[in-house]
Specification:
- By secondary structure, the protein is α+β, with helices and mostly antiparallel strands.
- It has one domain: START domain (Alpha-D-Glucose-1,6-Bisphosphate, Chain A, domain 4), CATH 3.30.530.20.
- The protein has a seven-stranded antiparallel sheet, covered by helices on one side.
- Strand 6 and strand 7 form a beta hairpin.
- The longest helix is centred in the C-terminal third of the chain and has 28 residues.
- It is globular and about 40 Å long.
């Protein structure tokens, strides 16, 4: 049974929606601010594996829906959760909203998962903004847990 708890983070990225959307579906771009390796581009109905080589961690990502320049609906993690990426054109760029939901944990485990998702997706958006707007890979994911 999943809870109705969800995580939502957002960031304005001062680039056209096509560029921002591409950054999330194309691992050639995404690897500059998030995971280090992917088995392929996100496509509706496909499954890819994302890898964070510095931590020895992999996640299988099921892509449920893609509406170009609007929405990416995925399911991934262990235990799996739904993660939606929404894109909206704004006056100064593109608003990206990441929503994570469908948590099965309870109590302290649920709080830990919500905290990890909030911090993790905020870091992803910060890194994406730095990379797309300024061409800088801040190595945020790599440096988030330097002792691992």
């Amino acid at each position: 049974m999943s809870s109705n708890v969800y995580v939502e983070v957002q960031m304005l990225i001062r680039k056209p929606i096509e560029d921002v959307f591409e950054a999330f579906i194309n691992p050639e771009v995404t690897t500059n601010f998030w995971f280090t390796k992917s088995t392929g581009k996100l496509e509706e109905g496909k499954t890819v594996t994302w890898e964070w080589e510095m931590y020895g961690v992999k996640n299988v990502v099921n892509v449920h829906q893609i509406n170009p320049n609007q929405l990416i609906k995925t399911e991934w993690g262990e235990p799996s959760v739904n993660v939606d990426y929404e894109f909206k054109t704004m006056e100064n760029g593109t608003l990206v909203v990441i929503k994570s939901y469908g948590f099965t944990q309870t109590g302290e485990d649920l709080l830990r998962q919500v905290n990890d998702n909030t911090g993790g997706f905020t870091t992803v958006l910060d890194g994406c903004k730095a990379y797309l707007e300024h061409g800088i890979n801040l190595r945020l994911i790599e440096d988030k847990f330097p002792s691992k």
